[in-house]
Amino acid sequence: MSMRPRHVLMTTDAVGGVWTYALDLAEGLLARGVGVTLAVLGPAPGPAHRQAARQVEGLALVEVGRSLDWLADHPEQLDEAERALRGLVARTGADLVHLNAPALGGEDDWGAPVVGVCHSCVATWWDAVRGTGLPQDFEWRTSRLAAGYRGCDRLIAPSLAFAQATAARYGVQPVVIHNGRRPAALHAPERRRMVLTSGRLWDEGKNIAVLERAAVRMRGAVEAAGPLDGPNGQTVRLAKTRALGPLSGEALRRRLTETSVFCAPALYEPFGLGVLEAAQAGCALVLSDIPTFRELWEGAALFVQPRDDVALAAVLDELLDDADRARRLGRLASERAGRFSVDAMVEGTLEVYADVLALRAPLGEAAA
Hints:
Elements: E1 7-13, H1 17-31, E2 35-41, H2 47-54, E3 60-65, H3 75-92, E4 96-99, E5 114-117, H4 122-129, H5 136-151, E6 154-157, H6 160-170, E7 175-176, E8 192-198, H7 208-217, E9 221-225, E10 242-245, H8 249-257, E11 259-264, H9 273-280, E12 284-288, H10 291-297, E13 302-304, H11 309-321, H12 323-337, H13 342-360, H14 363-367
Parallel strand pairs: 1-2, 1-4, 2-3, 4-5, 5-6, 6-7, 8-9, 8-11, 9-10, 11-12, 12-13
C-alpha cells in the first residue's frame, strides 16, 4: 500500500516562480486528501498572491516572514527562520516537511521526514552567470545550503540538467520531477507580430540585457512582462523593449495567447515556468542554448547562444516575418508542453513522499 502524509508543511516565497509551483502542488495534494499548510518566507505576498492562495480550497496560509536564504545578511537570520518553521511543524501536526528553501533544513531531526526541492541556488547561479570563483558573501550561503541538503531525506530537482549541476556543486543526487502547469483555456483569434518575454527581469540570470540589445537591432517589437526592481536593490532599465510591469496570471496568459513569439534568453534556468506557460499558449519559442532548455524543448524551439544579440535579433525578426513557421513552432511547443502537467508533478512528488515515509515507518507498517 502506498503511504501518503496526512498533513504537509510546505515553505514558499512570493518573489518568483516558487510561489506558482507551491500553489499548484498544494492544490494537487489537497485534491488527493493531503492537508497542506503553506508557510510564506521573505517579503509579504501582494494582493494578487493572496487572491491566488484563497482560490485553493482548503489551503492554510501562514506568513512566517523571516528571511529567505538568498536575501539574508547573516546566518543568524536563517536560524530564526528555521526555528519558526520547526515551531509550525509542532503546531500543525505535520507528518512531512516540504522545504522549497532547503538551506533552512539544517542537519537536526525535524521529527518528520523532510523533502527538499532544489529550485535554484546562489552557487550554481554564479557558475552560470559569472563563471568565476564565488565571492565571500556567497560562500557561507553555499555551506548553509550544503548542510540543508544533507539534512533532507530526499531531494527533488525540476530538470536533469539542474540535478546534474546540483550534484556537481554539492555532491548530492536529487530525484528529477519536472515542474508542471495547468494550461488555461484561452484562445486568441489572431496573434500579434510581437516578441514577449516574462519573469524576474531584474535577475541578471534571466539575461534581459541581451534581449534589449537585440531589440535595438530588430525591425519587430519586443515586450517584457515582470518586475524591473528586485528585493535587494537589483534593478534594470529598458529603452527599446516595452516594459509591461508585473502582470496578473490571467493577464499574462491572455498576452501569451495573443503573441506569436516568446523569447527566454536566460543564462541560468533550473526549469523555466515562463517558457512552459508560453508553450501551453501556443507561442513559438526562441530560447537560449543552455542545457536545461535543450533537455526540455529540443525539437520544439529555436536556440541561440545566450550572449549573441546579433544572432538573436536575426532569428526573432525572421520568425516574426514568417507567420506560418511561427505557427508550426507554436504547435510543436504546445504538444511538448503536454509532458509537463500538474498531475504528473503531483504524482511524482507523492511517490517521493511515500519513499521517505516508508523509511521512517515501523517495519510492519512499512511492509503493509
